[in-house]
Recover the amino acids of this structure.
């Protein structure tokens, strides 16, 4: 079962991750973490320049233990504003 993680990054890093600005030195640390733990951050709102939306990303992990490890490591990075397991969707 895949676990979805929601991640809020700083604006400068978000814009660089979406290739709206040149890469920052912070991105290397984040890229290394993704490679080490085997996850990929993807923008929730791709191709937007809205400053309130460009900062949100998602990642998938294979189980809850992996999700908790990814979240703990993400939260240790200064460019990460928030990281949490996405709550399940509820029917309307």
């Amino acid at each position: 079962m895949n676990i979805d993680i929601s991640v809020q990054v700083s604006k400068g890093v978000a814009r660089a991750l979406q290739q709206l600005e040149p890469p920052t030195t912070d991105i290397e640390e984040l890229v290394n973490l993704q490679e080490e733990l085997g996850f990929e951050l993807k923008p929730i709102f791709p191709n937007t320049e809205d400053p309130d939306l460009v900062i949100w990303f998602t990642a998938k992990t294979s189980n809850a233990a992996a999700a908790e490890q990814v979240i703990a490591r993400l939260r240790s990075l200064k460019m990460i504003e928030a990281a949490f397991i996405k709550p399940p969707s509820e029917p309307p």
